[in-house]
Amino acid sequence: MSSATAAPPGARKASRADDQRLSGWLGRLDSPVTSYYVLLSVSVVLVVIGLIMVLSASSVKSLVESHNGTPYLYFRKQLLFAALGGIAMLVASRIPVRGWKAMSLPILAASLAAQLLVFTPLGVTVNGNRNWLGFGSFTIQPSEFAKIGLVLVGAALLSARRRSLDRIKNVIVPYLVPCALLTLGLVLGGGDLGTAIVMGGIIGAVLFTAGVPRKLFAWGVAGMAAGAVTLIVTSPNRLGRFDVWLGKDTDPYGAARQPLHGRYALADGGWWGVGLGASREKWQWLPEAHNDFIFAILGEELGLPGTLVLLGLFCVFALICYRIVLRTDDLFVKIATGGFMAWIVVQAFVNIGAVIGLLPVIGLPLPLVSYGGSSLMTTMVALGILLSFARAEPGCSEALSAKPSVVRRTIAVLPGRRGRD
């Protein structure tokens, strides 16, 4: 071998050191606690981004509604919901898998009972949809809690029938009929097509992860498509939104105002954005700037890097859910994880698709980012359940128990009683 092709000893040592470092990082990724910590980190970062963007996007609206009293009107409410959601997520993460199996039916039953109340005088209509309950200045959306029940009940029922899922009858009854059908019927009865679409994605993901026959998917997709078309053509409001999406209605002072100004915001942001808090569209040009179209404000203020970071976080979330599915032997956990992943990813896709003009506007919030107490808290509960599943991975609970907490490490360095004496 010539001296030109022989690597010097120093280069070989550096190469071996690089390989060892790479192997060390890959080994860390294969740790039993990876799913838990990455999922927790992504959840916290998304909530923090949401709080920052709600503060920015709602500041002008808060000033208007408070008569120049405070720009923090909506931010304070969202901060309270985030704190309550954080407590709920912590509690949910500590409940074992068998606990979620036992609570699946009660959660769905309670949420459906609450959903029935929207058709009573307690119900509140918002933008043509009657899917809220009003208690003074406080409102709650029961259909958000029904998503959790729909996932858990599907996982419990289908995992219990794992050996007979090749028979379509065992798949349809009792999950699709009556559980899913009743849930979708009550939500559509209030006119909320957007939530029903997300629930359809949940049902599809639950069935797919459970391994049901493909023939059932064909019938299910055909049925949902026929139902969606029927609901669209029978509603002037929905037909108007489709006219805007197809370019038939371009009135900037009518139904096209929101999608047009959403794209204006993204165009104004350009590559690097106009700066955090410097949005122009939030000055009462873009309706629902802090809610359904908060992604447009994020793109306007933080530019392409901000939008890519947000998209990357949702992609990491999906990958971690997929990792949990691969690393568990519990079919209930597999199915439920697939359902929760579909819920958050489908809702994010539909929301962002509406903002950029890829899909029609159907009024769905961006998970963990948009303003809204019911959506934020229920999504954080779902993340808490996923953290519970991550803790159930082989070796994860033991590793977390063996690692001292921040509080214990802090107490350990304090002087003991003997030292004080």
What would you say this structure looks like, in words?
The protein is mostly helical. It is built from 16 helices and 3 strands. Strands 1-2-3 form a 3-stranded antiparallel sheet, with no helix packed on it. Strand 2 (about 130-135) and strand 3 (about 140) form a beta hairpin. Helix 5 (about 140-160) runs parallel beside helix 13. The longest helix is centred in the C-terminal third of the chain and has 34 residues, at about 295-325. Mean pLDDT is about 85; it is low at about 415-420.
Describe the secondary structure blueprint for this structure.
Elements: H1 9-29, H2 34-65, H3 73-94, H4 97-116, E1 123-126, E2 129-135, E3 138-140, H5 142-160, H6 168-189, H7 193-210, H8 214-233, H9 236-245, H10 257-269, H11 294-327, H12 331-356, H13 373-391, H14 396-402, H15 406-412, H16 417-420
Antiparallel strand pairs: 1-2, 2-3
Helix pairs in contact: 2-3, 2-11, 2-13, 3-13, 4-5, 4-6, 5-6, 5-7, 5-12, 5-13, 6-7, 7-8, 7-12, 10-11, 11-12, 12-13
